[in-house]
Amino acid sequence: MAKQISLSQYLIEKQREKNLIPAELRLLLEVVARACKRISYAVGKGALTGVLGAAGSDNIQGEAQQKLDVIANETLLEANEWGGHLAAMASEEMDHPYPIPNRYPKGEFLLLFDPLDGSSNIDVNVSIGTIFSVLRLPEGVSEPLEHHFLQPGSNQLAAGYAVYGPSTLLVLTVGDGVACFTLDRETGSWWLTCDGMSVPEDTKEYAINASNSRHWFEPVQRYVADLTAGKTGPLAKDYNMRWVASMVADVHRIMTRGGIFMYPADRREPDKPGKLRLMYEANPMAFLVEQAGGGATNGRERILDIQPTKLHERVAVFLGSKNEVVRATRYHEGG
Ligand code: AHM
Ligand code: MG
Q1: Which of 201, 229, 316, 325 could be joined to 265 by an S-S link, Cβ 3.0–4.6 Å?
Q2: Residue of the nearest CA to atom 18 in ligand 1?
Q3: pTM as predicted
């Protein structure tokens, strides 16, 4: 039997043999993975420990927080604040960045996360996850402020997500392809189960919340009409549709067998394009998908090239199989 490779061994190889990441980044990623493990255990206990249901508070987007949103957020903060690798953290569930308290040593990295993605699926026992992204604090800065986080996704040093599903998975990139680790729930170890994940260039599968179709702008209406027209339509093939409503689960399916995921802007809130957040969701997923050979745009430009203007900025997302993302983006041309 082939020798199993642990997450630590994988990262040490990236650090030592390939000189791709500094030791501090490796240690930071190990802490993030440990926090995801803890969240996975909390998710797994579910009703037994009373972690299901609403927290009774709202986040900055006006969305009702679930208890697990708050627990996952606290788990990530507590696990990462004392290690000495970070300057600050920012979370989808917190209005403002969280600077590392003065009682702890500070590092040069910024960690951003969506602590519990797919909140609407928590109480119905459907796959949910955690998404994270690592940036570097700009040189010469000693006090990290909100605007130091506002870097394009192409600056990310690492990104990943954990899926809390039938298995707990960690999918990770440090800019050298994408690897997937499976948590052995008995021993608590992460083992490499897929290296070099690759998104097929073509697909027959799309993901979109079609209940919003009446709000979509014309290019998306036209594109989805062509997808659903099937073999006898302009795209000359039959497409299948999947929508989990947990971005981590939808993206993981695409990372595994291809597809296109869309959460477009629509007419409801013209100044807030789409539902998904650039810094916590779109950027890390775009980095991972591109590293696996796929594409990611907001319908017009590459997501990783967008210069963020606000920490909680929202963005339209089209990502997945490269040729399908190019096609979807083409529908927006001249519009
Ligand atoms: P969340 O981070 O609060 O869970 O919100 C993001 C989620 C995504 O995981 C998912 O793709 C989307 O919201 C689903 O939205 P909808 O309920 O409109 O289908
Ligand atoms: Mg989310």
Answers
A1: 316
A2: 209
A3: 0.97
